Amino acid sequence: MGKQAAPRRVADNEALAVNTQIRGSAQKLNLVAGLIRGRRAGEAMSILQFSTKAMAVEARKVLASAIANAENNHNLDVDALVVAEASVGKSITMKRFATRGRGKSTRILKPFSRLRIVVREVQEEA
């Protein structure tokens, strides 16, 4: 007589991975997410591997987690996975201050972002 299980937030042929605390702005992370949207999972991994953007490291970890979730938790074929969704949003913002001359201070904002990647298994069309 426990609590009912939460329904799946994605379809049966999809797997999901989320990172809610990526240090950096959502605008920079969205540039990296745009590189992999709609691509095959293996191709997306190699794009992120050789990208010069610093956010690509975190995005690659989330994509690897989504692929592992698809394989281990949902028994999906890894070779048939496509990045169906890569959405970016704002998370918390740490507020800091820096001292300036004449007894003044300046506000420093250190933003965090969240990344949600959904991979979908697609059937090959012959």
Task: Report on this structure.
The termini are far apart. A hairpin with a 5-residue loop joins strand 2 and strand 3. A three-stranded antiparallel beta sheet has the order 1-3-2. The chain is flat. By secondary structure, it is α+β, with helices and mostly antiparallel strands. Helices cover 30% and strands 37% of the residues.
Q: Count the helices. How many? A: 3
Terminal CA distance reads 49 Å
Oligomer: single chain
Global Rg: 18 Å
Q: What is the share of helical residues?
A: 25-40%
Strand order of the biggest β-sheet: 1-3-2
- Overall morphology: flat
According to DSSP, the number of beta strands is: 3
- What average pLDDT do the residues reach? 96
- What is the makeup of the main sheet? 3 strands, antiparallel
Strand content: 35-45%
- Counting helices, strands and paired strands, the structural category is alpha+beta
Which blocks of ≥5 consecutive residues have pLDDT under 50? Answer: none
Sketch the topology as an H/E string, one letter per element. EHHHEE
Summarize, please.
The protein is an alpha+beta fold.
Please write out the topology.
Blueprint (H helix, E strand, L loop, with lengths): L13 E10 L2 H11 L4 H9 L5 H18 L8 E19 L5 E17 L5
Antiparallel strand pairs: 1-3, 2-3
Descriptive terms for the model:
37% strand, alpha+beta, 126 residues, 3 helices, 3 strands, three-stranded antiparallel sheet, single chain
